[in-house]
Amino acid sequence: MVSDDPALTIEIHDTGVAFDPLSLAEPDIQSDLTKRKIGGMGVFFIRKMTDKVAYRREGDRNILTMTFLNR
Q1: At a CB cut-off of 8 Å and minimum separation 6, what does 30 contact?
Q2: What is the pLDDT of residues 10-69, one digit of tens each?
Q3: Are 64 and 11 in contact, with CB atoms under 8 Å apart?
Q4: Which pTM value belongs to this model?
Q5: Suppose 50 and one of 16, 64, 66, 71 were both cysteines; which one would form an S-S bond, judging by CB atoms 3.0 to 4.6 Å apart?
């Protein structure tokens, strides 16, 4: 985690199977709750709460970088 004056940046690394969460389609949040499948909101919340989010794969590692601007 790095914090400088204008922003806070958090980088998460793992050695799991390659997975780009940003490639997922956004869920239909207008659909009836009883008809939605369970799960799938985590990436949606990350996209909505961060000012910038990026994914990259380096070797056998997934790296997700999230930036939050200080306001």
Answers
A1: none
A2: 999 999 999 999 999 888 889 988 888 888 899 999 999 999 999 999 999 999 999 999
A3: yes
A4: 0.81
A5: 66
